[in-house]
Amino acid sequence: MIGPSTRRLAVVHTGGTIASRPSPDGVGVTPQVAPTVSGLPGALVHDLRPFNLPSPHVTPAHMLALSHLIAGLAPEHDGVVVTHGTDTLEETAFLLHLTLGVQTPVVLTGSMRHAEEVSWDGPGNLLDAAHVALHPASRGRGPLVVFGGDIFDARTVTKVHTTAVDAFGGYPGPIGRIDRAGATPHVRFFARPEARPTYHPAALTARVEILYAYAGWTGEGYAGAEERADGSVIAALGTGNLPAELLPLVARTAGGGKPVVIATRTHAGPVIPVYGYPGGGATLVAAGAIPASFLNAHKARLLLMVLLSLGKTREEIRQVFEEGAF
């Protein structure tokens, strides 16, 4: 029986290691059955499985479909948890951050170890995520990521280790923590909710490619990406610098009306147009490139994809990145 104080939690399973077990054919592990939430008194749990994929198979189209699904679930639930593979979890979290304008808490989690390992971290992460999703202080914060007891903002969270159970981090660190030392979990936030714009493309029709800078790069692969894509993101060096040979290429692309966003391959910090040598950040911006602010390259790609799919011009896109309207 559903009472007036019963909390309603939707758990959306999408696959990943948290749902994985050794394959019947003996070749590695594959997504099969996700864990269920237990230890939530006074909660009615609604499980859904829109798809069951390893996270490298998740596309932006899956992410947008997930956003639409959650938008429909939010009015009828007090919280939503999404289980997801860790390889692209931060990208799904950020796409939801950009496109999902609900006040209902949405929390993503997963696991680093599969169900038949003795130290499977899936059930603990799922229970933590459920408690955070149903906590009143989680409302209005946008999608969150909960992993290893830490609570992260979707804009800054990133996977920082390939195998460790505390695989998620990102500067400036978690915005909260959940501890389950006693019978009542303690959810604590270190930051206030912030107002944020959301964007609502019907589909992600734009193609955006990422290029990775390195010492001695003279533009290999640039022309092909420029031709195929509607816009490009370059994971540049340091504060957003490139070898001199890239300056005329970026100027050509920007002059043709296609946006080129400059992110950094460094693990943390903003892109700042400081240097005036050929290929330095100041010369790239003068040539028409757009600094990515503090977004890493794969999150900058998603924002650029959303804006291009909405038909935004290069100058409108520049304004969004410069003002941090995300």
From TrEMBL:
PROSITE patterns assigned: ASN_GLN_ASE_1, ASN_GLN_ASE_2, ASN_GLN_ASE_3
Alphabetized InterPro entries for the sequence: AsnASE_II (IPR004550), Asp/glu_Ase-like_sf (IPR036152), Asparaginase/glutaminase-like (IPR006034), Asparaginase/glutaminase_AS1 (IPR020827), Asparaginase/glutaminase_AS2 (IPR027475), Asparaginase_C (IPR040919), L-asparaginase_C (IPR027473), L-asparaginase_N (IPR027474)
Domain L-asparaginase N-terminal per the UniProt entry, residue ranges: 8-179
Record keywords: Hydrolase
Active site location: 17, 86
A Pfam family reported for this protein in Swiss-Prot or TrEMBL: Asparaginase
Gene3D superfamilies to which the protein is assigned, alphabetical: 3.40.50.40, L-asparaginase, N-terminal domain
Domain Asparaginase/glutaminase C-terminal: 207-321
Domain of life according to the entry: Bacteria
Family affiliation: Belongs to the asparaginase 1 family.
Protein name: L-asparaginase
Gene this protein is translated from: ansA
